[in-house]
Structures are given as structure tokens and as C-alpha cells.
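Hey, can you fold this one?
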Amino acid sequence: MAVTITIVKDYANVSLGNLRGTLADVALDTSYPAGGYAIAASALALRNILGADVKGGNPAAKVLLYHWDTTNGKLMCIFPSGGGGAAPTSLANAAIATGATTVTSAAANGASDLLPGQGVEVGATANLSTITVRALFLGN
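Sure. Predicted structure:
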């Protein structure tokens, strides 16, 4: 499947000097493709896409980070905590497992599935159909 793009009518052709911009709502689908969602410039009334900046989205969009892959022209979805795995297909919040010691002192040793430092791309086939992001796409 693919994303559904709806151009925000009042901002369909924003001029930024030599650049043009299109503000659009991007509804994600039921099966995230590895590497991100390919978005065609023609779907945004642009000749090419030089970059994109996600400006907001519906309440479900807050669980992920979004990155425009300029090399491949794709919108990538990133799970900020790493999701406890190499490519999480579930958007569950990070958890702390119980340890052998009751969590009442500094001796508690619960293990966390947080992966500090770098987010991890959402796994292929993850269902992101509840998410819609609003992005400003820049191009000419």
C-alpha cells in the first residue's frame, strides 16, 4: 500500500525565494515499507523534493519521529527509544521489566528495553494507519 496525500488547500503553492513549498497531510498505511514511504514530487505539485519538515499531525503521530531521506526520496518513521528491538513493528511504549529485587531501593535491578542514543526505523509491515502527519515539502 502507499500513503494518502492531501494538499492543504491554502498552502498548496508556498513561495520561498527560489524554492516552492507544499503543505500536505500524509496519512500512513497498514504496512510500513522498509526504508520509508516513497513520495512522488508530482503528488505535491512539485518537480522535485529537496527536503521535508514534519510540522505536526494527529494525536497518534506523537509516538514517532519522522525523517526525510534525501537520497532515496522517502519519508522514514523512527521509533525514538529503539523500541527494544532492531526494527519494532509494535508501537508499544518502552517498558521496565521487574528484577529479582523489589523496586523499592537503589538495589533494584529491573531491565529496560530502552536503547539510548539513536532511534530505530519502524519495522517493515508495521501498521501505521492511525497516523497522519502534516509536512512542508520543499522543492521547485
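The longest strand covers residues 19-27. Let me know if you want another pass with a different chain boundary.
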